[in-house]
Design goal:
Elements: H1 9-14, E1 22-26, H2 30-35, H3 41-62, E2 66-73, H4 81-104, E3 107-112, H5 120-133, E4 139-147, H6 149-165, H7 176-179, E5 193-196, E6 215-218, H8 228-239, H9 249-257
Helix pairs in contact: 3-4, 4-5
The protein binds 3-methylbut-3-enyl trihydrogen diphosphate (IPE) (2 copies) and magnesium ion.
One 3-methylbut-3-enyl trihydrogen diphosphate (IPE) binds at residues 26-28, 70-73, 76, 200, 202, 204.
Amino acid sequence: MDNAGITDPAAALAGKSAVPQHVAVIMDGNGRWAKSRGLPRIAGHRKGVERVRDMVSACAEKGIKHLTLFAFSSENWRRPAQEVQLLKELFLSALENEIRKLHKNNVRFRVVGDIERFGEKITERIRQSELLTQNNSSLTLTIAANYGGRWDIAQACAELARRAVRGEIDPQAITEDSLVPYLSMAGTPEPDLFIRTGGEQRISNFLLWQLAYTEMYFTPVLWPDFDRTQFEQALDSYTGRQRRFGLTGDQIEAARHA
Ligand code: IPE
Ligand code: IPE
Ligand code: MG
């Protein structure tokens, strides 16, 4: 199943494997990690970048094709201006330090979200990095930055509406599939496994559309402590599950043995 549309159960079953094809992560708990050590919150975010590096190499090793990381939500602008500023600086420096290595390792880098709000310098650097790595084929690393699931659906609807006004689309013919090409994750299969660290059990406006049939994994471990062993545990949990996509367990078993 390497299509970009809405998950088709038959295709998903045919492609069933022990390893998820796409892992999406809410990297939460950096602030609490730092606070518990008497450090400024940014120290937690810095430590978090190290975990991103580990996660990218773990995914590449395991043959996971897509890794999507929530780095900054459209609601995170509500944080103190100083934290927002430091996060922007950290994002820029991490990008500058890592992009060559990502490229060397055949990783395709991409950012989804309304990035222009980060300013010209970051926007330009993101575009360059995307361009540099666009033909890489080992792992697609997608960073969600100034991203919100509702924003994503709304901007896709706006594009559909523009096309309808131009007469390119018949509003009567609009289905769920019609929206998919305009969502920012178009071209990427829906996540198989979702991980949220930091103990909260919520989606916080992440990939609302795409998580419809994703397996959810919540852990109290804070993101700066989420090492390879923790990731293995999440993968083991995924492997042990039966995905049914609305079918019955018997149907799934029959399909598996067919
Ligand atoms: C997640 O960690 C990173 C971002 C949202 C940028 P937090 O900064 O939310 O950490 P906690 O939840 O306050 O511990
Ligand atoms: C979600 O974490 C966003 C990111 C990890 C980037 P938050 O810490 O912002 O989520 P809430 O506010 O606890 O729901
Ligand atoms: Mg948080």
